[in-house]
Each structure stands twice: as structure tokens, then as C-alpha cells.
Amino acid sequence: MSVGARQRLRVRVEGTVQGVGFRPFVYRLATELDLAGWVLNDSRGVLIEAEGESEALKTMLERLRTEAPPLAIVERVAEESVAATGQTSFAITESAEGGEAEAAVSPDMATCEDCLSELFDPGDRRHRYPFINCTNCGPRFTIVRGVPYDRPLTTMASFEMCELCRAEYEDPLDRRFHAQPNACPVCGPSLRLVDPAGRSVADATEAALEEAVLAIADGRIVAVKGVGGYHLACRADDEAVVAELRARKHREDKPFALMSPSAEAAMELVELDEAAEALLASRERPIVLAPRRTNAPVARSVAPRSRELGVMLPYSPLHHLLLADAGVVLVMTSANVSDEPIAYRDEDALERLAGIADLFLIGDRPIETRTDDSVVRVLSDRPLFLRRSRGYVPRELPLGTPRSILACGAELKNTFCLAKGERAWVGHHIGDLKNYETLRSFGEGIEHFASLFAVEPELVAHDLHPEYLSTKYALERDGVETVGVQHHHAHLAACLAEHREAGPALGAIFDGTGYGTDGTVWGGELLVGDRRDFRRGGWLFPVRMPGGERAIRQPWRMACAWLRETLGDQPPIPPTLADSVAEDDWAKVADLASSGLASPVTTSMGRLFDAVAALCGIRAEVNYEGQAAVELEAAADPAIAGAYPLPGGGRLDARETLTAILADLGAGVPVSEVAAKFHNAVAEATARACAELARAERIELAVLSGGVFQNRLLLERTAAALAGAGLRVLTPRLLPPNDGGIAFGQAAVAAASA
Ligand code: ZN
Ligand code: ZN
Ligand code: FE
Q: Hey, is 148 helix, strand or coil?
């Protein structure tokens, strides 16, 4: 073969192509196709030069896309011809320094099958090693300090590889070639077990594991350092210890997540259809919420009053060892006290969790970025995110923007979003942005993402609420243009953008709270709009929130406000609330609602669900926002098809609905039926109002979003009714319908008006 017949191509591959075994894959491909040249990682992704027969080069280009390694996401392949050099071999060369850093970092991935079989193989040198990983699995986002993604810029930097590990790391044909967290018992991180005072209980990995498993079996609470933070682990079948955990965490009702040793064991806890089972076992390993089995072998305190349980499978080698040794289902709940962020640094964990955990199982690989478990339900065979974090972050989302954007999100379930060019990155779950701890985490997260993806924001988008810490943060940034985005418009735009739709669309956006353009509290909105603009096409009948924020904690106040609208001043206290609310408190709150003193007007659909839940006697008070609505959904019998009246086209007037509910409750109709007929009423009325607007506006696209649509029953019924009315329906798929999706929506609006 003469040099003249040969061609040489320079190929740039972009997407999630670093830390996923892409270079070895290119090496094998080139060797097989008899191509010479090199491949390297640089700040934009992977760069290849390959030289050989033109047919072989063509094949390589095709197979780069079709045969990429499982964790890789190839976004773009661009090639150009360069002069042939006559090179005869192919090599993987060192990462290029410098240049603008913007290579994609992969999310953290569950332990792969190959690593698992080594983990449990007594003959393997990593037998029972809790930090085993390879190019196809292991920590990524949580250990990255900077790009390019290479060991010195991860939290593994301080561990020097032993000879065997180094050989694997340097062998292009090895599964661990350039696996940055590569480690073994000789050279890598180890485990220790300490008491709350930090005194050693066991210093060696195997002893620490053994003692931890014994303690758990014995009914004690162990803080376990995981991939994105600490969990609190205990037996799920022991009521005494679960109740104790609840008391120590000051977490009165929120369900605890469970970790099950296997999918089979998970089947005994919850009902899983094929899609749910696939999601549970996916390499992202989210917590899957699914209907609990009647005889699920878990303590009552795991999830009191909930029809669902949140279950996940082990996703780190440490989890696999713990669960295999313990042989029982464990509670694995985020290690924090009530609303604080999850603990992830060792010192901090010991300090904050001293009163909660009896022991601490600590691995000495540091966590760079705190990342909570993701939480999903399954809707029409697809995930419906309640929280998108570990396993999914920082995967890119599609968003074209002429200028670089930072979007700061809202307050509850905050996330932020950075965008430039054709891509956007939504950050990890920050939590409720209400205190210094979360604010710091928010600010650090933004800086980290800005450097990982080389985004220098020119536009900074924020909520209209002047008191949100995210808004204040946005307005305090120097040298940028700020864009205020109405909360419900952001919900609408987020859903349009993730579906790559421009609009216009009708949006039924139902949530708890969002600052309206008129300064009132919105939350039951029918919007007509696209990514750039919107107008309000209708809304839920407005009522007072007696006592403001207190009405969120005390749904009975919303019941009182709605009854005042329905029955007039000083409505009688309904029998279902007589036991939980004092007569004169009720009278005072009714007065507040009448006078409007400290009682803002709201069109919130979330608050209507609260009111109905309170009326049904389900909840007079709640411990977290949305709890009453969750329990109302759980109470509803999905087999019941009837619906209450909920008249009004663009103005959904729920007063008649309340009257009918009172009558039914008075007549002894079971709550399961009342709750179902209420869900059906909202679904039907929403579809009817949207269909009317659609005809008037000549629009055929509808969007359902907002936190109220985490309610699967409501979302399914509303979507079905809208489809029945001939509309095409979009629901959030890649992001949560709740405020975790707001930042992406703000970015979409900012991009459209940039
Ligand atoms: Zn692996
Ligand atoms: Zn080693
Ligand atoms: Fe919202």
C-alpha cells in the first residue's frame, strides 16, 4: 500500500465521551481497521487523527457513532482531511493541556456486572473491595474537581496507583484503561468504622464492614458514606429502630427510602411493572416510588400513611457488600436533620449526625459535590422525576442560546441551570433555598458548573419573587444582564424546551406557589404562550390564604378559606375537622379570611388540594409542603370514574365542588370516593377549559406541569381528557414537573428573548 493511496482525517467527537472508555474503544476500532494515528482527550472531548484506506476511514466514522461504549453519548462527530504523514501505528496519547474546558463529565454510574463478579470472586484481587470500579462504572460527577477529566483533577488525586493498577490504567485493551477512580485494596481508599466521638471501632476495611453489618443487624443506626453523601442505614423491618431514627431525625412523616438487596426482594415490597423494574435496575439507580404491597415486610414507621414505598437497588460496591452481608432490606435515607442538606464531608457528618447515628462507616475517598439520590415514579412506561440528581446530573439537555445563561431557579427543591451554544446543564438538587447552608451549596454549585463547562454567564435569569434567595443572588451578580421570568411561564417553557418544541401552547400549570405578575400568589394557571412570552388565559377561583405561610403548614386554614367563599362569613366547622381544630381558632381564621389581614389572595391549585384533604379529615396540619395532596392522592380509589362539578371555562370555580364534597362527606360517602371524584373533577375541568382556549386561540398543543402534577392520578386523567379533546399533550420527561425544573425553564425563556 503506497502512501499516496492513503488518507488522513482529523475527527472531533463531542458529547459525554470522557471517562467512559472512549479512547480504548477508538484504539480497538483503529487497530481492527488497520488505521494509523492517535486519539486523545482534550477540553472539548475526544480528538482523533486516523490514516489509512478511505473505506476503512468511512467505516470508522460510522462505528464511532453506532458502537460507542455504553456510558458514552456521542453528540457530534466532525471530520476534516489533513495531510497523510505515513504514520504506521495507532496510539493513545496524553490529554492535551489548555484550551477552553468544556468536555462533558459523565454522571455517577452503578457498579457494572463485570466489577460485580470480581467483587464476589474470592480469587480476584479486588474480592470484597468496596471501591472497585472500571471505565464502565463508578463515581464520576461526584469526584470531579475540574476538567479535563483526569485523575489529578478528581478526589482520587491523593491515592497513588500501585503497579498492578497502573498497568491496567495504562493498557488500552484493559477494562480499566484510564478509569480515573481505579483502585485496589493495596493502593486505594479504605473503610473505617468510628463512633460519634470519632473514636475508632474498626480500622481495616473488612473489620469495619463486619462490625457495621453486625450493628445494623442488632438494630442500630449506621451513617454510611456513599457516592454523593451520607445515608443513615438501619433495618427496615424493625419498628423500634425505624421509629428511633424518625425521632432522632425530627422527620415526622416523610417516607424513608429503602435499599433492597435485589430486584426480587424489591418485588416483595412494591408492585413493579416492567418499566418500573427496568428503571430500578438501570445504571442511574434512582429511588423508584411504587405502590406498596399489602404485606410488605417493613416497619410501619418507614412510610406511615403512604400507599407507596421508595425503593432503590445497591449502586456502589459498598452497598452491594452491605446488603449482601446484612441480607435484609435497609432504610437508606439521606443523612441530614429535617430540612438541612445531606451531609457529605466527614468532619461535618460527624458533627451534624452525632445525635442520630450510632456508628459511622467512612470511606476515605472524598466527595467533591454533594449529590442526593434521584427520585422517580413511573408514568406511561417513562420516568416521572420528583427529583433529578445522582445518576442523571450533569447530563446535558438540549437548549439553543445565542448568549451564555445562568438561571437561578426558584426556592423549593432548587436547582440551577447553565447554558451556552446548543447545550444546557441543570445542576444537582440543592434543596429548599431557605438558609445559609443551602445558599452556600447553591453558590458553590454554580461556580463548579461554570468552570466544568466553561460558561461565563452574560444573562442571569431569576424568579419574579423579590424575597427568594435565588432572586437576590441573581440581582447581586455584577456585570450581567438580568432577566426576570414569571414562575409558571418557566414551568411551561421548561416542558416545551425539553421536548424541543417552540410553542405556542396552552399550559395548565398547577403548583403550590408562584409569584404572579400582579404581585399575588399564583398556582392554578391556564397560560397561553411560547418560550418567549405568555398571557394568562384563565385561573382557579382566588381565595385568601389566612395567615399567609401558616396556611401552607395548616391545610385546615385553606379549608376554612374555601368554605368562607362557599358558605359565607363564619362557616361552621365541619365535623371532619372538629377533633383537630379548636372552635375559636377556626373562628379567628375565618375572620382573617374575611378581612384579608395578613392573608394574601391565591389561585393556588396546591392549596385547593390541601383544603380538600383537610375537609376529608386526612390532614389538618402537615410537616412538608404538598404532604396533604400526596395523602389525598393516596386515599383516592382509582376505580371510581365519577366527578364533582367544577364549572367555569377560563375561571375554574371550585366553590360548587366544595359544596358537593361537603354534602357527600355529610352523607357518609367514603373518603376514597370523595378523593377520586375530586381528582376527576380537576382533570375534566382542566381539559374542558383548555379545549375552549385551544379553539379560541387555534392551538393544538397542551402542556401539563407544576408540582401538583407529581400526582400521577391527576396527570394521567388530565392528559387522557386532553387527548380525548383532540389536543397533543406534553408532560415533563427529563426534568421534574415541580420547581426542580424551573431553572431550565428560566433559561429557555432567557434564551428565547436573548
Ligand atoms: Zn465496572
Ligand atoms: Zn492498586
Ligand atoms: Fe412551581
A: coil
Q: How far apart are CA 437 and CA 647, in angstroms?
A: 45
Binned at pLDDT 50, 70 and 90, residue 103 comes out as low
For residues 715 and 740, state if they share a domain: no
Please tell me whether residue 166 adopts helix, strand or coil conformation. Answer: helix
Query: Looking at the CA of 315, which ligand is closest?
Result: 1
> Containing domain of residue 15, as a range?
6-92
| 122 cis-preceded (ω within 30 degrees of 0) | no
Ligand nearest to the Cα of 182, by number: 2
Whole-angstrom Cα distance, residue 330 to residue 311? 10
How many angstroms from the chain centroid is the CA of residue 739?
11
Going from the C-alpha of 726 to that of each of 480, 688, 694, 722, 731, the distances in angstroms are 44, 11, 10, 7, 16
Instruction: Report which bound ligand comes closest to the CA of 118.
Output: 1
Kindly report the length of the chain: 754
Specify whether 200 is located in the same domain as 325. Answer: yes
**160 is a domain residue:** no
Contact 705, 509 (CB under 8 A): yes
Distance (Å) from CA 68 to ligand 3 centroid: 38
Q: Ligand 1 centre from 136 Cα, in Å? A: 5
- Cα of 135 from ligand 1 centre, angstroms: 6
Look at residue 213 and tell me whether its pLDDT is greater than 70. Answer: yes
Is-contact 515 493, C-beta < 8 A? no
Q: How many domains does the chain have?
A: 4
As residues whose CB is below 5 A from the ion ligand 1, the structure lists: 112, 115, 134, 136-137
Query: What separation in Å is there between the alpha carbon of 525 and the centre of ligand 3?
Result: 11
What the block records as the C-alpha cell of 616 is 376529608
**Å from CA of 428 to ligand 1 middle:** 24
What are 551-589's pLDDT values in tens digits?
999 999 999 999 999 999 899 999 999 999 999 999 999
Looking at the structure, do residues 324 and 354 belong to the same domain, yes or no?
yes
Q: 168-185 in b/e burial notation, b at 16+ Cβ within 10 A?
A: bbeebebbbbbbbbbbbb
On whether the CB atoms of residues 357 and 335 are closer than 8 A, the answer is yes
Positive or negative CA dihedral for 631, 636, 638, 643? negative
pLDDT in tens, 249-292: 887 788 999 999 999 999 999 999 999 999 999 999 999 999 99
Q: How far is Cα of residue 711 from the mean position of the Cα atoms in its chain?
A: 16
Mean pLDDT of 407-426: 96
Spatial neighbors of 199 by CB under 8 A, at least 6 apart, are none
- How far does the centroid of ligand 2 lie from the alpha carbon of residue 169, in Å? 10
Domain shared by 492 and 566, yes or no:
no
| 476 and 570 within one domain | no
Cα(341) to ligand 3 centroid in Å equals 20
Domain identity same for 743 and 721:
no
Distance 105 CA to ligand 2 centre (A): 24
DSSP label at 541? P
Cα(385) to centroid of ligand 3, in Å?
14
Q: For residue 415, tell me if it sits in a domain.
A: yes
- pTM confidence score: 0.91
